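Lab notebook, bench 4. The sequencing result for the construct came back, and we need a structural model before the next group meeting so we can plan mutations. Quick request posted to the team channel:

Model the 3D structure of this chain.
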Amino acid sequence: MRDLELLASWHADWTGLRAAVLGLGVTGFAAADTLVELGARVLVVAAIAPSAQADVLAVIGAELCEHHSVDSVPARLVDFDPEVIVVSPGFHPDHVILTWAAAKKIAVWGDIELAWRLRDKVGEPADWYCVTGTNGKTTTVQLAAHLMRADGRRVAAVGNIGIPVLDAVRDPVGFDAFVVELSSYQLHWVPREGSGALRPNASVCLNVADDHLDWHGTREAYAAAKATVYWNTRVACIYNLHDHATRVMVENADVAAGCRAVGFGLVTPGPSDVGMVDDIMIDRAFHADRHHSALELTTHGELAKVGLASPHLIADVLAAAALARAAGVEPAIIRDALYTFRVDHHRAELIAERDGVRWVDDSKATNPHAAAASLRAEASVVWILGGQLKGVDLSELVRDNAKRLRAAVVIGVERGAVLAAFGRHAPQTPVFEVLATDTKDVMPEAVRLAAEAAQPGDTILLAPAAASMDQFTSYADRGTRFVAAVEMHLGGEPDDDSEDSGLSGETTNGR
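Done. Here's the predicted structure in token form:
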């Protein structure tokens, strides 16, 4: 068995390494392709292997083992006797293959660790800027990459955002920097020491709230995974002034000598923070005279022009600006670049306004923390929510926002728990249940019920506080179907698909 600590470079000897890859999604395929390129022997174990990807595996020289059982280790994997297993993020730590690997003392790497080890393929390795948090990761990553590109750098936004880091490290031109979105699943597999441990230039955990408890088991395990983002950081650990847990993570992290703690928040910043003074965003962290003066980055008014003025988006801008400042981007460049940034679809996106009612698509709000941010931005809401709850209780979210709710429309397969939360904590709120089971009918029915409940001055808000895979292919699919249903409803044309479907919206609490 070779010493895996020596495999810390693209230019190390990977020849003949027996590497098993779990999963054949985007991440798994990138890992398999990379390992084959390195000269390793590769066995891919997957329950589902789309024919196109399976054919490509055969072409590149990787072996495929289709294994559908969740209770047994495939005999082919046992015979293969892997020296390392590269696991895709979706595999739970208690998966039978991973418990078998632990018992056999087989190393288990995530794709992030593998990418870090291989970061020197093309010239000088890119600097890494790592972003995690329960909410706001993608927007912050996109913002930070946008700000760094405005400074003339070649930057890739990678990781959980959808582009595997392994694809970026193999780009033949190379990059100056990677802004890496890291999910708690990915961070679970990142070691805190050794040759596979990340050593980013700067890192940030935006916030921590209960999420993915079905995967991690406990909130403590979830938070511990998030905290790994700060370990070994070299320049700046950026934390949320409004979320004490993120400060504790920084205080407990083992970081490089000289690394600074930098806070961000919608408050007057201290000498090591970025924040807001009245409507001005300022930097008092990356400034030589930070104890006596500050640098202006932008204003609330300018952010409003580009749809970044809601509190949770301002927080994302502050975090991204702090990452960019840690990279040496000047304030004037940040200010100008913010004017050209646009938030992705399905993130608190205003899609229509008619007869005094606003329609907002925040399908990306896949957990209570994200939904709470959207709800707080509105005065009176008809709230469309529900889906896969991922082990999270919505009671606190319902209770805290009951006074701003005109009505609620509940979708998804786990409606029972949502309805119970309203019954306990918002019994006066009219709650309507979408009984449609066909994906094409869910949003037209939800939109119809929401429109009937809304009054001038209300916002009809899709902020599900839940994952989408029970009824949709993704949060984007859910949001796109919502937008289409709104456009159909406001256009005044009948929905031919649902006209004779026999669907009904059942009111639970009355009106």
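The first strand starts at residue 18 and ends at 22.
Will bring this to the meeting.
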